[in-house]
Amino acid sequence: MKIKFFITLILFLIGGSAFSQSKKDIVRNKVKSVSVSKTFTRDGKELTLKDSYEKYDSDANLLEEITYNDSGEVTLHESYQYNKKGDVTEEVHYKDETKVKKRIVTKYNSTGDKIEVSEFDGNGALIEKNMFSYDANGDRIAEISLDGNNAITKKVTNLYNNKGMRTERRTYDSKNNLVALRKYTYEF
Length: 188
Known about the structure:
The protein is mainly beta. It has a domain at 83-183: Lipocalin (Beta Barrel), CATH 2.40.128. It is 12% helix and 54% strand. It has 2 helices and 12 strands. The chain has helices at residues 2-18, 23-28, and strands at residues 33-42, 45-56, 62-68, 74-82, 88-94, 100-108, 114-121, 126-134, 140-147, 152-160, 166-172, 178-183. Strands 1-2-3-4-5-6-7-8-9-10-11-12 form a 12-stranded antiparallel sheet. It is elongated and about 65 Å long.
């Protein structure tokens, strides 16, 4: 009995890391989903339960993932949507199998830089929005955080040298008071 338990434990530990395949393997083999079950002994009885589930699109982007605890209850359930470049445009976090806990929507500019991240609660109400702006070199020069009422809660500005290296980062509070200043010095 002890040997069977140890073999099951070893297989469980190895299996937990072995099911993770590379994106290349998923595309090459046209994997649509991966279901993982686990078998273990509890109170002298052998049990097999769901461990996790992952669903992929044809580009091997993760569309949905669900993990379960040892009682078979959902501990994590998330789904994702992507743009043509493969960037995540929407994440949905669930409380259980179906009830939405929060939704995160991300927008990008034409060069692929993240320009806005909005978080909504399960009822669709805005919780927080973060907006980003960039200079002509693609360096992030400003970040603005807003609350659910679109009031500024934080602002960050970045300065760069002629080599594109950040030299200064300033953080301001909701009243535009400087709360942090970081200066960067480089040795070349």
